[in-house]
Fold:
Amino acid sequence: MPYVEALKQLMAENNLTQQKLADILDVNQTTVSQWLLGRKKPSYDNILQIYNKFGITPDALFGIE
Structure:
């Protein structure tokens, strides 16, 4: 699941905990945890927030070339 690895990399590069990322994206920490476990995918709104705040395109987030 490319988005899991992309989120982990984003967190590492920006020194973010699950809680810090959750706060930035205005979701709860459990949601971020579910994304990182591959149990849920970020919603359209969350994908746009990730793009706007960190510059990661939806294509890059989901491994689309």
Notes: The first helix runs from residue 2 to 13. The chain has five helices and no strands. The domain at 2-61 is CATH 1.10.260.40 (434 Repressor (Amino-terminal Domain)).
